[in-house]
Design a protein that fits this description.
elongated; five-stranded mixed β-sheet; 5 strands
Length: 205
């Protein structure tokens, strides 16, 4: 069963529009968490559309406009770092996913959500573990979310805060990034709730 066939098995009993939902950026120390929702045509299939983590940056960038062009509907949403600190990363991720779904120009008949949690998302929905490797719509959503977040890190964060190297590590806790945080302190887009272990020597959060 290919990834399009996986989605098509749910197009029964009046279910026509199946939306894949995925996120990017739950783990980084800085920046927003992104989510995307995508509805693809039932007869559309591209073998190259796969889990974004399994693709090179060049391939993800090439697929990004194709997915947007071929999709019946798509939406990308983000929730900022200060909100992540306020409501925690899980709730922020669910909010980003919910906003992405609600932003679709077509109301989906079913959501396929990557992972095992779909809290507060519109129903009916189905959680799919490792769904970005099984479902074409989830894989497409993972690519849109990942590319959008990487561009945000390079075009927004790296420009606004050039001392931190966001264009390289994308906010993740690389050794160089952690050393910079300890050396010059966090900037306004760092997730303060993620920095406790890094700033153990008493710097103010």
């Amino acid at each position: 069963m290919n990834r399009a066939e996986f989605d098509n098995q749910y197009r029964v009993n009046g279910v026509q529009h199946v939306a894949g939902v995925d996120e990017a950026g739950r783990g980084p120390l800085a920046g927003a968490v992104f989510a995307a929702a995508v509805i693809l045509p039932p007869d559309f299939y591209m073998e190259e559309i796969n889990d974004s983590k399994a693709l090179t940056e060049k391939k993800r960038e090439a697929l990004f406009p194709i997915i947007q062009q071929e999709a019946l509907a798509f939406c990308i949403s983000r929730v900022e770092a200060d909100v992540i600190d306020e409501i925690n990363i899980l709730n922020a991720t669910m909010r980003a996913m919910r906003e992405a779904v609600n932003g679709l120009s077509i109301v989906p008949d079913l959501l396929l959500v990557d992972g095992n949690i779909a809290r507060d998302l519109p129903e009916p929905n189905l959680c799919v573990k490792k769904g970005d490797a099984k479902s074409q719509t989830i894989a497409a959503a993972s690519i849109l979310a990942k590319v959008a977040r990487d561009r945000y890190c390079k075009e927004e964060l790296a420009v606004a805060f050039p001392d931190y190297g966001f264009e390289k590590h994308k906010g993740y806790g690389s050794k160089a990034h952690c050393e910079l945080i300890r050396k010059i302190g966090p900037c306004p887009v760092h997730r303060r709730s993620f920095l406790t272990k890094i700033l153990q020597n008493g710097e103010a959060l």
